[in-house]
Amino acid sequence: MIDGFGRGVPGASDDTRRALMDLVMAATVRIHGPAYGYAPEGPGGGFLGSGFFIAPSWVLTCAHVAMGGEGRDVTVVYELGPGSGETSVKGSVVAALPEPPRGAAGAAPFGPAGGWPAPDLALVRLRRPVEHACVYVTERPAAFFGGGQVVYSGWTEVGGRLKRLYGQCSVQGTVGGWADPDEQMRLGGDVLPPGVSGGPTVDLTRGEVVGVLKSQLVGGMGGTSIGIERLRLLPVPPEMAASESDDDYQAVFHAHDRYHADRHTNGVGTGRTWADVQSGLGAGADRALSPQQRVMLLGRLAELPPPVSTHSLLDLLGRLPGVHSVDRYPAPRSWRDGLGALYENRRGEAALELVLRYCMSVIAAERPYVTPSTAVAEEALWNWVKWIAEERLPRDFRNEITRLRAAARHRTDRAQRRAWPAYGERRVDGEGPFVLLELEPRGWERDSYDWRIGVARHTGEVLPVREDSRGTPGQELPARLAAPLTEAFRRCDEPDNPAVLQVAVVQALLGLDVDRWQLLPGGPPLGTVRPVVVRPSDREPPYSEDEARERRARWNRTWSVAMRAEILDCEDGLRVPVPTEEDLRALAYEAVPVLCRFGDRPDAETAAGLTRMALGGFHLALLRRGADRPDPVCADFHRRAADTLAGAGTAGQLPRTVQELRRGVREGRTEMYWSDGVALYYDDPHHPLPGSGQLLEAP
Question: Is 383 helix (H, G, I), strand (E, B) or coil?
Fold first, then answer.
């Protein structure tokens, strides 16, 4: 793919390509079991596979390599250059993607070596500091790599000895789609020998690592490589980070970018840096920045605290003029990722202006934390922006960014930064984004579902994350939806403020207990870590203008005044029919229906009552799932439901109130046991479900 930032030019010298391979091989390591150096077994000494230094004291490899020994301890062996001799250092696997089931060790839970599910990546942290080289990692997804040739590096056993090697492959396509967590790059043209899994895959034109070798093709040439951007799937800390080390992803790439910026500006070294080699390859042709300028910019961005969240970064990018298609899978989560997301949006001088506007947004952005050096880092980035603008851009643009810098100086505290967006117009008031899961039963297949997951914004737009129309058995839904739901949550969550999950199902399935799903084996129920609500996906009959106005007024009333409970189907411990539509319309607008006898799957009488409730204009209700209880339990439920609705205040607080109840039940708080099984019916008329096919369109 050719873009405004260039794909490089042909004709790079053999000397430059050799220099590139020297840099790659200097950073390539081999992974051994923890006993290496003490009681090695055979010529390989517990050799597990290859890996590479991605940042000082950090090694990236495949999970099936790093977890193929005993536990999470490994030994990293490397050579800085020809004749330098081997160095070994102990390390620990701090993250694996995906993590094995709790209590399991090694590759056994996922099958034989190479059978670890994608993305099959692992981060190893060294236990002591050592001098070593690091690769340069691309800042944008491998999906934008346009094909052609890649080189790889790794270790393998030859004649009873372990030797380092490299080779060249052609990119022949992908396995999986653009939103598929199992997507891999298909490589051909060379035999990938045993042991090279975990080694780097390098774009020969750009001179940057784009992937990690995963597997070899059995009985053929080539294999597969995992895109380096899959590291964005590393777990996000549940609370706002207080330091760089709180988030492994940010810690690794900040260290990576500072390393390359420092090496490039070091006046003592005489060797060619990655930026020098990339320049020799012609990687800066038609780009907004030369490789040298890019490495310096990334180094300055790495001195700043990271974005508060993926959602805040996407919001920042979306407010830049002319930016589109930044919600790619996986979504960006660091300043370097945001820079990479700009590469497909503009060309020529406009591309450089876009980069500098982005930098101004970064300077003005809210911080998750502030260190003594943050102000210095902001000033350094501003000086770089000013220098580039004075060299290459017209006066009007220079005046614009000077005004932005002056405005940013007056918004230095966190509260002001939250109130003002980093670039452009003020933030639109309203609800934040939420995750929408649509489950559609396949009528001809019992307990089988098609599904769609999207991110819904306050504008009413729903951006797709993942969909599947092949039918998923009900018992497999939690495991099948875990990865796309996690990605969707990351695009919406703010620190200490997890996004709401709205589950849209047909009326007969409103009792589906999605709030009890566990996205990780042994993990907490979904409804205890974030608000989970249900809404009907059945098509409603058309309403008259007066009816539609009344329905909106009823919903808006629950958002502005204190709610009060209205028990509709239970009286003195006995089940009663839900009132008629006319009687329901006569209820106060702040009334919230409570269906005490809803059950798990509504029978004909309950379904009819639910329909009358919806036609009566109600978009909000508490549904009590589970089997019928004795009369005294009903009375207690009625009292506590009324107190809870009154205590929650308005409808906007109710989803999180129900989440707190679910968390309390899990924690054994007896005063909350009454709420066990409660579901929140939440059919927001201001965010209607998308029309047919809307979630099928790419963002």
Answer: helix
Q: What's the pTM value of the predicted model, to 2 decimals?
A: 0.86
- The token pair at 241 is 């980070």
- Structure tokens, 436: 């929408």
CA-closest candidate to residue 97, choices 483, 489, 478? 483
Rounded-to-5 percentages of helix, strand, coil across the chain: 35, 20, 45
Q: Across-strand partners of 76? A: 31, 89
Tokens representing 171 are 């990119």
Q: Do 48 and 93 touch, CB atoms closer than 8 A? A: no
Contact 316, 365 (CB under 8 A): yes
The β-bridge partners of 50 are: 30
**Using CA atoms, how far apart are residues 298 and 291, in angstroms rounded to an integer?**
11
Cα 453 to Cα 437: distance, rounded to the nearest angstrom: 5
Angle subtended by helix axes 374-392 and 291-301, to nearest 10: 150
Q: How far apart, in whole angstroms, are the C-alpha atoms of residue 358 and residue 423?
A: 8
State pLDDT tens for residues 407-460: 877 665 544 454 444 544 444 434 689 999 999 999 888 889 999 999 998 777
Cα angle: 641, vertex 561, 671; to 5 degrees:
25
pLDDT at 81 over 80: no
Contacts 24+ apart (CB under 8 A), 656-659: 656/531, 658/527, 658/531, 658/533, 659/527, 659/528, 659/529, 659/530, 659/531, 659/532
How many angstroms separate the Cα of 552 from the Cα of each of 556, 557, 681? 6, 8, 16
* Model pLDDT, residue 269: 63
Query: Which range among 88-97, 465-474, 546-555, 612-621 shows the weakest confidence by mean pLDDT?
Result: 546-555
Say how far apart CA 637 and CA 626 lie, in whole Å: 13
Phi first, then psi: what are they for 555, rounded to 5°?
A: -65, -45
Calculate the alpha carbon distances from 304 to 40, 250, 380, 495 in Å: 44, 11, 10, 18
Instruction: Specify the length of the chain in residues.
Output: 699
Count of other CB atoms within 10 angstroms of residue 114: 21
Closest CA to 695 of 474, 438, 440, 512: 438
CB contact at 8 A, 594 and 565: yes
- Distance of alpha carbon 391 from alpha carbon 356, whole angstroms: 13
| C-alpha distances out from residue 108 to 45, 68, 376, 546, Å | 21, 8, 49, 63
> Which span out of 110-119, 499-508, 573-582 was modeled with the highest average pLDDT?
499-508
Distance in angstroms (rounded) separating the CA atoms of residues 615 and 600: 22
Distance separating alpha carbons of residues 6 and 113, to the nearest angstrom: 38
Decide: 440 and 692 in contact? Cβ < 8 Å: no
Residue 315, H or E segment: helix 310-318
State how far the Cα of 681 lies from the Cα of 662, in Å rounded to an integer: 15
DSSP state of 237: P
Distance CA 25, CA 79 (A): 9
DSSP conformation letters of 576-635? -PPPPHHHHHTS-TTEEEEETT--SS--HHHHHHHHHHHHTT--EEEEE-SS---HHHHH
Structure tokens given for 324: 């589109």
Give me the phi and psi of 164, to 5 degrees please.
-85, 145
Supply the Cα-derived Rg of the chain in whole angstroms: 28
